[in-house]
Amino acid sequence: MLGAADVAKGALAKSAAEPVTPGAGAGAAGTGPPGERAAVGSTDAAGSLRHWQENRAATQAAVVMHRLRMRCPSILEKRSASIVERHISTASASAHQRYVQNRQLPGLDGLRGLAILPVIWHHATPRLLPGVLGKGAVGVDLFFALSGFLITTLLLREKRTRGQIRLGAFYARRSLRIFPLYYSVLACYTLRALQTQASSAVARHFLHGLPYHATYTANWFLDYAVPHPVMFAFSWSLCVEEQFYWIWPWLVALVRSRALLALLMGAAIAVDALAEHAAFAAYLPPGSLGLRMLTSFATPIGCGSLLALGLDAPRSFVWAERVLGWRWSAPVFLLASVACLLQPATPYLTLSFSLAALVGAAAIRADNGLAWLLERPLLRRVGTLSYAAYLLHVTVLGLVRRTLPQFQDSALVVFALGLPLSLALAELAHRAIEQPFLRLRARFH
Fold it and tell me: Does residue 343 sit within a domain?
């Protein structure tokens, strides 16, 4: 892009090579057919004079700018930078308006579809595999980042449009989304455990922890350190999300300052990281209830929430967009997340921020570099079914292993059969159980 000084130099060069005279204007003699020149008359002369005056003024302005450039080059550079900065600010403001007014954030269903695949793979493996193949649980971390980002975004937008957050309506919508299928699946597990409790330590352990599963507190009170498989163990992540819903919406509703909210969430991330590294071992011994409660916070949820806070404010949106608003931002942060998984010891905090950035890059720009994948109808449908698939896939994988015992140690076979069957069962559960309750959520908007 040419700056003001370059324009001035060009004008000077042109004026030296082609001197401007009254006869060189657009309406001067010699610029059109003879008949036209005769017809123009005095109007042509007036136009020639006016054009000569404009050219002369432009030349004088160019001379002044050239001299100014020679004497004080920084002035023009600052002026050009100021013009560019205003242009960027205007464009960013428009992008922020589009973002906050967009009711359907792009890419999120596709990301949910990507998240459930490694989770099913992880539970299809007979044992923990080495390297990146053994890190399928990262799908849960992506779910966490999505939840933190989406819930915080919805809360902030309601606060902006209504002036307040109707917490009763929020919890009604969440309950209709989460509880029907969760408690339906929990009831099926309970019936199965009651039938086999006499001969199964697994079933007795489940029934002992049933009150914790029913109240989303299993990650605090259930004993996972037992010499047998833990029935319904996957509910720990749902407990983490539900506990996030217990606290965070109240803070967003009551705290007016985004900066204070960001500070509180940042403190929660820091405390969790310190607790995970035994910083509080002198006060909270390993296995203690206090330590379990302190480390039950999921860092990706916090990172997603921080990103939502940043994108909601116009000023911080400008800075976030400079990182996340490029077409290549989403692919880069996907690769960064994979790079974290390739490390022998996964840098969890870095991975959490990278996953949140991936979510933000997909949400800011509909034509992001992963849109060709995330907007595929099949992947989006898998994302829609991801909650049901998460609740049901462990049961399906168990059935595959019992039906084909010769392949129970083959992760590829169990996964190849378990994935489509899990999605098929999730489709049935979605239509029969979830959809009727989801339609009721419109009453609470």
Answer: yes
